Amino acid sequence: MVQIIDGKQLAAARLGALQIEVKTLRDRKIVPTLAVVLVGDDPASAIYVRNKQAACKSIGIETIEARLPATITGPSLLARIDKLNSDDRVHAILVQLPLPNHIDRQGVVAAISPSKDVDGFHPENVGRLTLGLPGTRPCTALAVMALLGAAGVDPAGERAVVIGRGQVVGMPTALSLTHANATVTLVHSRTRELAEIVSESTIVVAAIGKPRYVRGEWIRPGATVIDVGITRLPDGTLAGDVDFAAARERAGAITPVPGGVGPVTIAMLAQNTIALAGRQI
Ligand code: GUN
After folding, report:
1. Is 52 known to be catalytic?
2. Model confidence over 206-218: pLDDT tens digits?
3. CATH number at residue 232
4. Mutate to test the pocket of ligand 1, among 38, 48, 137 (most ligand atoms within 8 A of CB)
5. In-domain check, residue 272
6. Are residues 159 and 196 located together in one domain of the fold?
């Protein structure tokens, strides 16, 4: 029988443990505070930001929201981030992606103080991850590793495929799996032998953003499948990057969409916020 990896349950357990850490910090007069910057009015981003703030608030993390118009200039946005960098109450800063096209995303990410970079997207933190040095790790990569742990999978010595090379998920997850001693293949839209590489892998992480792109018959029997993708289909339902109905027939363990990676990513955001606040001691 395939194991359906319950991300909601894992996230609830993790948030419960984090709530105690928040209390300890608050007893020491430190109120962990996350600033969330949302530019424009992308409806999906608005929902993500709302869910992130709700989870943080539920365990005692303070959140500050800056909603900025899509027409904001690059320099105005950088000035806003600089204010948050120098605000001593703020321990963690999240700029929700994607940003409007006229904004230089790399410039914005690099403007966040590395010591408040809760997403781990700043070049300094990316460099730290690459080198295996301590630093803030991207929340989704942390979630993937936590879900593998919850499924009882140790990546060491396994063949893992990460589908998608984005800065938010694919690249940091491939690096995390490499540091956990998996043999990692990072595939992307230009890869020629996708089906063959997936079928050789005992760990499959899908983060390409195309609904049901990974077909069930590609999955190696018994493999662990972590599906990061979430797309709303025209009929209103949500679909992952993996054809779940077909893949579950072959996988040993698989995350559902929704209720898999998403809730755990949010718990990791809370964890990173608390870790950054804790550095004040
Ligand atoms: N957009 C999609 N995923 C993320 C994320 O993990 N962090 C931020 N800041 N934006 C995102």
Report:
1. yes
2. 999 999 999 999 9
3. 3.40.50.720
4. 48
5. no
6. yes
